[in-house]
Amino acid sequence: MGVNSREHGLLRALRSRNYRFFVAGQGISLIGTWMQQVAMSWLVYRLTGSALLLGVIGFTSQIPTFLIAPVAGVLADRWDRRRLLMINQTFAMFQAAFLATAVLAGFAQIWLVILLSLLLGVITAFEIPIRQSFVVELVEHREDLGNVIALNSSMVNGARLIGPSVAGLLVASVGEGVCFIINGISYLAVIMALAAMRIAPRPPRPRQRHVLQELREGFSYAFGFGPIRSILLLVAFVSLMGMPYAVLIPVFAKEILHGGAHTFGFLMTSAGCGALIGTLYLASRRNVVGLGRIIVVAVILFAVGIALFALSSYLPLSLAALAMAGFGSITLVASCNTIIQTILEEDKRGRVMSFFTMAFLGMAPLGSLGAGAMADLVGGRYTLLAGAGFCLVGAAAFARNLPKIREKIRPIYLRMGIIGGLPADDGQTPAPGEPHGAEHPATGRR
User: Has residue 66 been placed in a domain?
Assistant: First the structure.
């Protein structure tokens, strides 16, 4: 049955019972997560007064994603994803509880905070690929997948607007420890939601091989298929060259805009608002058709937003520029996520999503280090302008390759009933002689 026979509400994915539980639990937990991030940064700065150690905390919380996510992807393809998530969230809850205890009891030192940040990074590195592949199991109607991914991004960005504001009030009034307690309690919402779901058992997998063999198989599958390879490379390139703009926002708030902490808060909120608008736009779309063009436009908007922010010395223009950058970045990531989740094979979902996690989140700490070093040499403005220029190059390369990507994706969409015959000028028509049941080049499956 085609997608046009279904309802097209902004929240249509919520008709799936399991996904409703997921939204309820995850929505609460994400607010706690953002509260902990803000409180931890403030704690580090209060203990040390060092901007360098703020960067170290950011690095230790992100770099495990680059190293561990592939292994998490193998586990997500091997074992029960719901059980893995419940174990993972339990560890996260204990991490938050220990951090709260250390702060409230007065024995929190910077080495301990860094160690706990690294532990949280390891937990997150396992959690993201497992969650990304698990959410597909919650969807009763396959055509709702794009809506699900957009709503997930909306939850993240909605929590991004609420969590830091609440954390700021609590830190100022009662200290950081209360934020860590609230975050620990919030994980109970996720665990309870996971326990309440009714998940059909997954079909048994063939005999398991060595982790490295399964990783090699997943890599060959992902990078042997042009559309997945192109999307992963674009996301990695933009994350490396463009996404590190966020680490330089405090510099612009103080040195360029001559503001303080409140100016920094306004700039971050503006980027979050733009991202939230982007996710709501994607959630309103009917299906995945046309997302290729949207990806190109999103990268261009992201690059233009960064460039305008780099050149601006006027706060309202800087706010508008970051809103544009936030819109472009989340639209890019969510659109790429949607296409990949739609076209990949189920038995390799965990591994492919681990590569997506590496491309999106794993490259960010490397880019942040590079951006920081370059900003010391040539200044923040030239650093951001260079990053924006590289992002435009990436958009041009992806746009040039887009017709080939469409040719290979269209047969998959036809088999899934996502599209019927489209007019030739839509850009989705296969090349002359292309079969409508094309094999995946990495597996030979139809």
Answer: yes
